[in-house]
Structures are given as C-alpha cells and as structure tokens.
Design goal:
The protein is mostly helical. The chain is 65% helix and 0% strand. The protein has 16 helices and no strands. Helix 1 packs across helix 2, helix 1 crosses helix 4 and helix 6 packs parallel to helix 12. The longest helix is centred in the C-terminal third of the chain and has 26 residues. It is globular and about 60 Å long. It binds ligand EP7, magnesium ion and zinc ion (ZN). The site of magnesium ion (MG) has 4 residues, from loops.
Length: 344
Amino acid sequence: HMQVHPEDVSRVLNCERAHDLMPEIDLFYFSPRKIEESECVCYCVEMFDDLGLVQQWQLKRDTLTRFLLFVKKGYRDAPYHNWYHAFSVFHFSYLVIKNLRLVERGFISSLEALAFMVSCLCHDLDHRGTTNSFQMQSGTELASLYSSEGSVMERHHLAQALCILNTDGCNIFDGLTGEQYGKCLDLIRDLILATDLAHHIRLVQDQEKMASEGFDMNSTQHRQLLLFLLMTCADLSDQTKDWKVSRTTADLVYQEFFSQGDLEKAMGNAPLEMMDREKARIPDLQIQFLSHIVCPVFKILAQLFPEADCLLQSTVKNRHCWEQASAFFARKWESGHSSLDILR
Ligand SMILES: COc1ccc(Cl)c(-c2nnc3c(C)nc4ccc(C(=O)NCC(C)C)cc4n23)c1
Ligand SMILES: [Mg+2]
Ligand SMILES: [Zn+2]
C-alpha cells in the first residue's frame, strides 16, 4: 500500500516555515498549475492556515502534512485526473471562500468550509482516466463494487478518502467533537458524490431557480445546492483561467478521452464521438461543453455573487476563443489533419 516516510513529513514542515503564501495566489486569475509540484503540499497547509481553519479546528500541522502527502500519493499519473487537478480544484475552493467571504457572510459554516476544501483535495482519488460508463461497460472491479448505486468512480474516490483518514497519524479531524466529526464526514460524502456530472445535471435547474429567487440563508436546500454548485465550479475552474490554461486542460482531458476510446475500440465497443480520436472535433465539443455545462454554472455563481462575474466572463471569453479556433480547424480539416496535432 501507499507509503509516506517521516523525512517526507519533516521536509514539508520545514519548507512551510520558510513559506508565506506567494503574492497573487489569492486572486481569481492565478493558475495553481504554476506552483512547483514539490511545493504544493506546503501551500495547502498555508491555505488552510490563511483561512483560519488550522486554528479554528485545532488541525495539527504534522497530521495535516501526513494526510496531504497520502492524498498526493493517492493520485495516479493520468494525463488530466492527477494530483495537479486535485490541487487546482482545492486552490479554487480557497479562492471562493476567501474572495466571496463565504464564512463571514454566513453562506457556509466554518465546518462546511473545512469539508469543502478537504472534499476538493480528495474528490478524484485514484482516478484511472476513464468514465463511469466505461467502468460499467467493461465490468471493472469498481463497477462490481458500486454500479448498483451509480456514481461508480465517485464512490471509489470517497472510499479512498475515508481510507486515508483512517490511516495512522492522518486523521486531521481528531480535534473535532463526535457530532462535528459525523457532520464533517456526511458533508465529505455528499460533496464528493456531487462531483458526478450526471448528479450536477439533475440539480442544475434547482440551482438556477435558487439564483433567480435569491439565496435564502435559512433554507437547508439552498445551503446544500450552494455547496454542490461550489464543488462543480471548483472541478471546472481551469475554464475560468486564461486561454492557455483552458486550452491545455482541454488537451489533457481529450488525451484521457481518446485513450478510453482506443480501449473501447480494442474491446469491440464503439466509443462516444467525443472519445474517438478519428471523429472528435475538439473546438466544437468544447464550445458545446462550455455552452451547456461551464458557462451556465458560472452564470449561477455570478448571479449569487456579483464579485464572481469575472469568472463567468473568463469562461465566455474561452468559448469565444474556441469559436475562433473552430473556423481555423475547419480549414485544416479540409486538408485531413486530426484534431490533436493541430493543438500542438
Ligand atoms: C465536473 O465533472 C467533470 C468530470 C469529468 C470531466 Cl473530464 C470534466 C471536465 N473537466 N474539464 C473538461 C473539459 C475541458 N472538457 C470536457 C468535455 C466533456 C466532458 C464530459 O464529461 N462530457 C459528458 C457529460 C457532459 C455528459 C467533461 C469535460 N471536462 C468534469
Ligand atoms: Mg471526478
Ligand atoms: Zn475532478
């Protein structure tokens, strides 16, 4: 099983004493993919500390560091669904809590903020770069474990997170009361399961209704819908950065999709067009994904929090860039190039 050695923990503890957060790390346009991989864990500790959560929940730095190192090791080196994706989703949770002042304005509690950030870190643990439908169609062991409940991968990510929390010296919540601990794990369960896009698609109309009616601080349903919205926003946050980040992320996502498509063809199953490297038209697929999934989500966020309008604007700008690229690609396709090598 995964190993984290004592010298790994002490190296991070020492580096963090040298660290305070780098300038601009708390701005919406900052891309966490700029941070050195070896420094990510230090920055995670500093971000928890910067939001007052280390103090508030008596998080022990060595326990938090060991937990973070296990989480980092718990990700595989898939093109997209790797540690850097988890770290960037976590960084976005830090950005919204800090910039939208979610706790002090009463939109979420401090415990919900803690659970939100930990869920972001753990939400794709041990991802293999393949989708839920691939698990079911190819009858993987994860499908045999979880397919009756649905959200196969998300249930596995949750199981991996709980396994790390139960590893010696990794339970960051051992300063919480029994009741707080139970509430926190319930939140982490709901939040990780909410990252299944199919789950989001079922809820998005309720979230749009909540945004148009106006958020009701006393509505349990509104508070839960907001947390789920924030998870989806965090999972898609690369699309709120500049064009280079947005396009590079699309490239990585399609590397995973096309590898899955190759596997499906080898197994005699016809892949979805977006997974077939011979058929997929990436700009058109990205225009659809941004139009139907990404922009609507950040439109809801911007309706609830006008300070988040810049995030919506970035997703709209990135969609426009794909529209420009689409025209360019169309000319290239006539001359028979496949999608990816034009992206290079
Ligand atoms: C929020 O949860 C997830 C889960 C998995 C993934 Cl890969 C993503 C994700 N993150 N970045 C991207 C980009 C740049 N393009 C994507 C294009 C299509 C799809 C997709 O799943 N389409 C089918 C569905 C709409 C029925 C996901 C894409 N995606 C987000
Ligand atoms: Mg996921
Ligand atoms: Zn994810």
